[in-house]
Amino acid sequence: MEPALALPGLLDGQHLVETFGLIGLLVIVFAETGLLLGFFLPGDSLLFAAGFAATGELTDQLHPNIVLVCVLVTIVAIAGAQVGFHIGRAAGPALFQRKESRLFKRSYVTNTEEIVERYGVGKAIVLARFIPIVRTFLNPLMGAGNLPARTFLLWNVVGGVLWGTGVTVLGYYLGTVDVIGKNLEVFALLVILISFVPIGLELLRARRNAPRA
């Protein structure tokens, strides 16, 4: 398949799936959900491309079983979030009080906290799965707080299943649509842009509610 867009390699889910296969997919999902340095990885478009790969139309060298992909991705997504939660529990609030750098911005934490405040813990844990950056920072943030581990595990499983299986299955079925299959990178980019909508709405709401000088 000829690429439709020249996306940077680390942001191109299709390229990552084609290059690293199923094992690479699982490593990336774990890094994005469990390790703070994985916040820039393209989780949504990656799962979308993995679902499409299961149709056998992405590349001749990669044709995984869709059920296997969904099960493994979901398990790894849940495990990664649990690791992130326990990193936050071990490090405490100091984890989010370090100085800003090219990789770490205080706004990442602020946006995550706003979503928790607006939607509540349970819904925020589930919704965070579909929001880039937030899905990385929310897990350790919950661990650094006083949230019971059992409560986090419950909502983590719900969010992990909806995200890990839902987005992958979406790529599997939509990929069979001719126009989507031939322009996978375009639709993968749309998936990324749509996933940023919640953050955009939250920032807009915060700006409107901010006191004027």
Tell me the layout of helices and strands.
Blueprint: H1 13-34, H2 43-53, H3 66-91, H4 106-119, H5 121-128, H6 134-144, H7 149-174, H8 178-181, H9 184-195, H10 197-209
Helix pairs in contact: 1-2, 1-3, 2-7, 2-9, 3-6, 3-7, 4-5, 4-6, 5-6, 5-7
Can you walk through the features of this model?
By secondary structure, this protein is mainly alpha-helical. It has one domain (9-206). The protein is 69% helix and 0% strand. It is built from 10 helices and no strands. The protein has helices at 13-34, 43-53, 66-91, 106-119, 121-128, 134-144, 149-174, 178-181, 184-195, 197-209. Helix 1 crosses helix 2, helix 3 crosses helix 6 and helix 4 crosses helix 6 (134-144). The longest helix is centred in the middle third of the chain and has 26 residues, at 66-91. The relative contact order is 0.17.
Task: From the alpha carbons, calculate the radius of gyration and give it in angstroms.
Answer: 17 Å
Tell me the number of helical segments per DSSP (H or I, 4 or more residues long): 10
- Uncertain segments are 1-10
Quaternary organisation? single chain
The helix fraction, in percent, is: 55-70%
What is the mean pLDDT? Answer: 76
What coarse outline follows from CA principal-axis ratios?
Answer: globular
Q: Please indicate the count of domains.
A: 1
- Span of the ends, CA to CA: 54 Å
The count of β-strands is: 0
Structural class, judged by helices and strands?
Answer: mainly alpha
The ordered H/E elements are: HHHHHHHHHH
| Proportion of residues in extended strands | under 5%
